[in-house]
From TrEMBL, chains A, B:
The keyword Transcription applies. The keyword Transcription applies. It holds the Pfam family HxlR. It comes from the Bacteria. GO terms for molecular function: DNA binding. This is Transcriptional regulator. Keywords: DNA-binding, Transcription, Transcription regulation. Residues 12-102 form the HTH hxlR-type domain.
DNA sequence: GCCTCCAGGTTCGGTCACTGAACCGACGCT
DNA sequence: AGCGTCGGTTCAGTGACCGAACCTGGAGGC
């Protein structure tokens, strides 16, 4: 564990955070958890990362208190749900600078139906930092190019953190 | 580049962002850039990461438009400065859950002298999302355990993005 | 009971990125 | 010329990531 994972010598909260969520695939796992993915095989189908890596990451996320495992389902803890602003702002930043074709997903304030702004607020409602439980994911037609069963299920509009909508 | 760096198949802004800032050390480089570090040797002294890795990361960050290189100094571009909320919230999250001893640094709204809140706002001034240029870093005495020249220089209170305050 | 299927992993070579130390060239100073 | 520093590059060794194959425990059928 002396190589590749930790940032010994960096006595810094940012480094501590990155030791937990900074490894390859980890933030994409958390993204999918917000979108409602809960089961090992569903993460696997949607991420196509090696099974061993997924297994390891899920385990360390559970150990770090970001996820809990119950009855074969991984769900975000309160600590994990606090990562929402980071996940959202990363997506905003990536969208602004590195995806010319526009967004693949739009996040809508469930109570009023308007998309939230780049800061994560709902201007009409005056709600700053809309929590993930009050958000719906809408997929922009033709923009999500993935075609696994999980991606298809995630395409129907649904609330964040709710379990994967349709299961065949 | 087929392994380890990109997330081919993830047609997602978050994945795009992580391809740029998601690699090991990258976000710590950006953190230091916000704190005023600009020169290769200063990043090196403060991060103790391999020179080759630092060299590579700085290069890809310049290529991605996050940093610019002029006269041997790396500075954050506008796009790079937009990463501030992410860096700040990562630090907040890491501090809340993984550093029991309390913060090593406090960020103060320069205009009024009060520390900003966990969301990055200044409640007394009513300023939401205080921009990095309006923030001062104050180091909590006895909490920053590093003792390289750069760490010492960074300990004196200074504004974000201003070049390294004292140079011996 | 026994067989089959499937979800949820673990194991196993091979490859690639990270690591630390050594080396290199350009520049400034004496 | 000789020395020091800055900003890298090169290089052998090692650990993490990769994909594919294999294992295991429980559910369902017969």
């Amino acid at each position: 564990m002396a190589l590749g994972k930790d940032y010994a010598g960096q006595n810094c909260s940012i480094a501590r955070a990155l030791e937990v969520v900074g490894e390859r695939w980890t933030l994409l796992i958390i993204r999918d958890a917000f979108f409602g993915v809960r089961r090992f095989s569903d993460f696997l189908a949607h991420l196509d990362c090696p099974r061993a890596v997924l297994s390891g990451r899920l385990q360390t996320l559970v150990e770090s208190g970001v996820l809990t495992k119950r009855l074969g389902e991984y769900t975000l803890t309160e600590s994990g749900r606090e990562l929402w602003p980071i996940v959202y702002m990363l997506g905003q930043w990536g969208g602004r600078h590195f995806s010319a074709d526009g967004p693949t997903r739009v996040l809508v304030h469930a109570e009023c139906g308007t998309p939230i702004d780049p800061a994560g607020d709902c201007p009409p409602c005056g709600v700053p930092g809309v929590p993930p439980t009050d958000l719906e994911v809408h997929t922009v037609p033709g923009r999500d190019l993935r075609d696994d069963p999980v991606a298809r299920a995630l395409r129907s509009p649904h609330r964040l953190l709710e379990p994967l909508p349709v299961r065949p």
